[in-house]
Amino acid sequence: MPLLDRSEYYDLIRTTNWTPSYVSEDELYPEEMSGSRGIPMEKWESFDEPYKVAYGEYVATQREKDSGAYSVKAALERANFVDTADPGWISILKAHYGAISVPEYAAMTGEARMARFSKAPGNRNMAVFGMMDETRHGQIQLYFAHEHTRRSRQWDWAHKAMHANEWGALAARHFFDDMMMTRDAIAVSLMLTFAFETGFTNMQFLGLAADAAEAGDHTFANLISSVQTDEARHAQQGGPNLKILIENGRKDEAQKMIDVAFWRSWKLFSVLTGPMMDYYTPLESREQSFKEFMQEWIIGQFERQITDLGLDTPWYWDEFIRALDETHHGMHLGVWYWRPTVWWNPAAGVTPEDRDWLEEKYPGWNDTWGNLWDVIIENLVEGRPELTGPATLPMICNMSNIPIVGTPSNGWNVKDYPLVHNGRLYHFGSEPDRWVFEQDPERYQGHMNFIDRFLAGWIQPMDLMGGLQYMGLAPGEIGDDAHNYEWVSRYTPDVAGTAAG
Amino acid sequence: MTDAPEVLKPLRTWSHLATRRRRPTEYEVVSTNLHYRQDNPDSPWELDPDIHMNKWYRRYCNDSPLRHDDWDAFRDPDQLVYRTYNILQDGQETYVRSVLEQFSDREHDSGLSVEWAGILASHHTPARYLFHTLQMASAYLSQMAPASTISNCSTFEAADSLRWLTHTAYRTVELSRAFPDLGIGTEERRRWESDDAWQGFRELMEKALVAWDWAESFTAVNLVAKPAVEGAVLSGLSRAGRQEDDLVLSLLTESQLRDSERHRRWSTALVEMALENEGNRDVLNGWLAKWAPMGEAAVDAYCANLPDGGALAASAKEAMSSFHTGLGLAAG
Ligand SMILES: [Fe+2]
Ligand SMILES: [Fe+2]
User: Fold this and answer.
1) Of A339, B46, B55, B235, which residue is most buried, by most CB within 10 angstroms?
2) The CATH number of the domain where B284 resides is what?
3) Residue A229, pLDDT score
4) Chain B partners within 8 Å of A18 (Cβ)
């Protein structure tokens, strides 16, 4: 007799719901942790994960994946790619590892929330593999980043960022804590696995992997596409729960959770992934523009998935599509301008060739963003670098915790979306950001964003040095232009003009 | 320029590990100080400080009566990381597959007596519910422990419980085919919910699952429930099975007990670390006094109708209490 096929015993593995009697069902599954929303226990038993895996297969497959990723790294270590790569690419690696490694590990807790508190037995089992996957993602990315600590102190931020009050790290924590750390099991499955992982991690891990392969960074390309194979599996926990919610008359609640999570994910990506893809990646290695990646992965695939499940596209869909031409350009300009406040060196990405590419991908770029860069370039060419760095504080959104931006110059539409709640004035970067707050003010009302902290006197002295100190950034870690301003020479008259004549 | 701030130099490792003389191991590089929620005791999560989940973590993690100044100093004695876990367990699963395949080829199950098959139906196949409660309990500890190095041990433990549950489901199908009239594969839930043999364990686990304080949960599960389960449901039953030539059960159990030995090693290390703070001894003893009697009752109920059950129960309880004494704790 051969071994049993997985399908012969799989259903028993996930037949584990029982009726408790020594404690009540509500004690065993507190609503605030469990989130069953009044749907009875047996309804959750219909949870059917599309991607099935049993323990033995899991450890075998994962062992192989790790052996692949670690051996590619070992084989390429001598090639010293990082020492010869374009500095813009190195900035991507530093920003990515700092913003992603430790939050990936933290996602273990979101998975553990489902593994303990979901009333769907299949969800509880899949989430154990999810806990394992996220442990992997935290560990492997820390391991890959660690070998570079000897190169620059900025690499320390792969571990340090999430422990710091640096504004970008603070924004990432506010986002991840909202989506995956402080929600009930069912909300985690919708907001983290369905909205964020199905929609967005594809972008970061497959989109960026395409650029990495183009840039010759095979270690990183291999690493993040291997990570994504796990995401693709455990992201499938949200769909079945979504189905159960809809079948039991909770479509509106489900829709709201998706709408909140999707918008918040988009804002994080606009500051993290947008600049990486359209400005930091060397021009010749750009596979597609950020907007094109978004159109393919988000508008094409995610939109189809939500409508297939019977949900509507979020109410702000038109605004989202409009913002694809705008937000990340503003974020990039802001991050480059406030470059001492990040743990990587932002690449300006505005040589004449870069600008032709930007104009082609985003018609009108030169007439809007380009005009602001012209001012920066002029100051740099004329030897006034002090005018190209932070003198004032930006407005920061009380939801996304990132700067409030809009299109400048000839397309001017920069606007604050304020709200007075319980006597406190909040600022938001968009109507959807304000809407998210209004859905659940108690969740956000007592939080202080970076500017609130500054105005409340938490940051002393109240100047750039005090701010950097509060953020945990010291010389040796603080960001500066990735290419040490070499690109400015392209705009210096005697170099760019008729020097040869 | 003398008062210009010092420019930080690159380091050989993460800054938080750089002060030690020794080069950190791979385990330390990828496992230590990862719970950023421990940074701000007033608001573990970066949202309104008073939301439910902030209160939950303040109360059940930060304000636990078990106290230590530096839980992040905890180290897994096995220094297991994700990739070594999979190497280890893929090896174990290869072994399990070969056992299952060989004995199925030899038609092992049709050689078992009907009496013994009845005991497997009442005392073995329902264990998938019990193992699942262990899985849930470990998943809770993973999300609540004050240090990532503790959470990681617990995460591997959750996966191991799912492993045991998977073995049990597999055997349930095989046994149901060899003994179609014993309710195998259909009666487990009823037995778990109402057979006398399981009520002690069910009570213990339902209560342990709502012991929300992270350290009490650890005590109830890792110091009491798991030793009780391992003594009675793993070792005990497999010993009874040896009289019946149930080699599959004993070989499978053998492999599962390897996991549980590893769980004991880290649990022991955690207790040792906690006892660096003398005040913790009373806290742990207090919890043991509450939980150990439930563990013993669970063992007694489970063993009551097993052949030679009195002796099996006695040795399981003896093993549990010597585990506690070995830790320097007294269950009273
Ligand atoms: Fe992940
Ligand atoms: Fe994930």
Assistant:
1) B46
2) 1.10.620.20
3) 94
4) 129, 189, 192-193, 202
pLDDT of B3: 58
Q: Under a CB-based contact definition with an 8 Å cutoff, are residues A461 and A155 in contact?
A: no
- Measure the CA–CA gap between A86 and A482, rounded to whole angstroms: 9
Residues 6 or more apart whose CB falls under 8 angstroms from that of B18 comprise B11, B12
CA–CA distances in Å: residue B262 to residues A152, B153, B154, B250: 38, 9, 11, 19
A149-181, pLDDT tens digit by residue? 999 999 999 999 999 999 999 999 999 999 999
Question: B307 preceded by cis ω (within 30°)?
Answer: no
Which domains does chain A carry?
55-393+473-491 (1.10.620.20)
Q: What is the mean pLDDT of residues A435-443?
A: 98
Count residue pairs from A and B with Cβ separation < 8 A.
Answer: 244
Name the domain count of chain B: 1
Asked whether residue B245 is domain-assigned, the answer is: yes
B window 122-181, beta carbon within 8 A of A: 128-129, 132, 135-137, 139-140, 142-143, 148, 151-152, 155, 158-159, 162-163, 165-166, 169-170, 172-174
Residue range A83-91: mean pLDDT, rounded: 95
Collapse the DSSP code of B274 into the 3-class scheme (helix H, G, I; strand E, B; otherwise coil) and give the result. helix
Average pLDDT value over all residues in chain A: 94
Q: What are the C-alpha distances in Å from B293 to residues A431, B270, B317?
A: 58, 22, 10
CA proximity to B304, closest of B201, B187, B164 = B201
Distance from CA of B168 to the nearest CA of A (A): 8
> Which of A6, A19, A59 is best to mutate for the B interface (most B CBs within 10 A)?
A59
Q: For chain B (length 332 residues), average pLDDT per consecutive 10? A: 74 94 95 98 97 98 98 98 98 97 93 97 98 98 98 98 98 98 98 98 98 98 98 97 95 98 98 97 98 98 96 97 95 54
Confidence of residue A80 (pLDDT cuts 50, 70, 90): confident
A495 band by pLDDT with thresholds 50, 70 and 90: low
CB contact under 8 Å between B170 and A131, yes or no, is: no
- Residue A203 scores a pLDDT above 80: no
Provide the angle, in degrees to the nearest 10, between the axes of the packed helices A251-275 and A167-176.
Answer: 160
Q: Is the pLDDT of residue A415 over 80?
A: yes
Give distance in angstroms: CA of A227 to centre of ligand 1. Answer: 7
Q: State which residues form the domain around B125.
A: 80-326
Q: Which two tokens stand for residue A454?
A: 């500054």
CB A197 within 8 Å of CB A426:
no
With CB atoms and an 8 Å threshold, state whether A170 touches B46. yes
Q: Which B residues, 180 through 209, put their C-beta within 8 Å of a C-beta on chain A? A: 185, 189, 192-193, 202-203, 206-207, 209
Per-residue pLDDT, B27:
98
Facing residue for B174 by CB, picked from A4, A128, A475: A4
Query: Residue A417: which H helix or E strand, with range?
Result: strand A417-421
Give A354's Cβ-side CA count (13 Å radius). Answer: 22
A242 and A311 in contact (C-beta within 8 Å)?
yes
- Whether A500 shows a pLDDT value over 50: the answer reads no
* Measured distance CA(A286)–CA(A211) in Å, rounded: 6
At A394 the pLDDT is: 86
- Tell me chain B's radius of gyration from C-alpha atoms: 22
Identity of the amino acid at A4: L
- Tell me what the mean pLDDT of segment A317-330 comes to: 95
Report how far Cα A46 is from the mean position of its chain's Cα atoms: 32
**What per-residue confidence (pLDDT) applies to A493?**
80
What is the ipTM metric for this complex?
0.98
- Tell me if B308 is assigned to some domain: yes
**Euclidean distance between CA atoms A377 and A382, whole angstroms:** 8
The torsion angle over the Cα atoms of residues A126, A128, A134 and A136, rounded to 10 degrees, is -110
